[in-house]
UniProtKB/TrEMBL annotation:
<dbReference type="Pfam" id="PF04828">
    <property type="entry name" value="GFA"/>
</dbReference>
<comment type="similarity">
    <text>Belongs to the Gfa family.</text>
</comment>
<protein>
    <recommendedName>
        <fullName>CENP-V/GFA domain-containing protein</fullName>
    </recommendedName>
</protein>
<keyword id="KW-0479">Metal-binding</keyword>
<dbReference type="InterPro" id="IPR011057">
    <property type="entry name" value="Mss4-like_sf"/>
</dbReference>
<dbReference type="GO" id="GO:0046872">
    <property type="term" value="F:metal ion binding"/>
</dbReference>
<keyword id="KW-0456">Lyase</keyword>
<feature type="domain" description="CENP-V/GFA">
    <location>
        <begin position="4"/>
        <end position="111"/>
    </location>
</feature>
<dbReference type="InterPro" id="IPR006913">
    <property type="entry name" value="CENP-V/GFA"/>
</dbReference>
<dbReference type="GO" id="GO:0016846">
    <property type="term" value="F:carbon-sulfur lyase activity"/>
</dbReference>
<keyword id="KW-0862">Zinc</keyword>
Length: 138
């Protein structure tokens, strides 16, 4: 897959990535909902391919024992979530300058944290909080 350009809302933080696949994931955890004012849609990237072109305003927040969140300190755009050891990384799919036509909604995580007032009508794989935690913190 080709290298793709992505950026925050104001353009102050810019980066390039290689997508790992075309599968979009939705996170319903309380942190993502608070950070994004809703669900967060991400796509997996090859961790070593995340290269910042402009990063003066890049902020990184340690959000758990194993993960951290990247954001633009200028405009507040959510940019990525990755493991502290950088072995896994996903990005806000809407940070991409161009969305590939091949994208598909694949999975919802922290499904047991999802509030009842919304739902997605597409069939997806669904993982609970315990299943996600077991994946990232064996």
């Amino acid at each position: 897959m080709k290298k793709m350009h992505a950026q925050c809302l104001c353009g102050t933080t810019q980066f390039e990535v290689n997508l790992a696949n075309y599968q979009v994931h939705v996170c319903h955890c309380s942190l993502c909902r608070r950070q994004s004012s809703g669900l967060l849609m991400t796509i997996d990237v090859k961790p070593e391919s995340l290269v910042f072109l402009k990063q003066d305003q890049l902020g990184v927040f340690k959000s758990s024992e194993w993960g951290e969140r990247g954001f633009c300190k200028q405009c507040g755009t959510t940019l990525f979530w990755r493991m502290h050891d950088h072995s896994y990384c996903n990005i806000n799919v809407f940070a991409l300058d161009e969305l590939p036509k091949e994208l598909s909604l694949d999975m919802e995580i922290y499904i047991d944290n999802k509030p009842d007032f919304y739902s997605l009508n597409q069939p997806t794989k669904k993982l609970t909080e315990a299943e996600v935690v077991a994946m990232f913190n064996p």
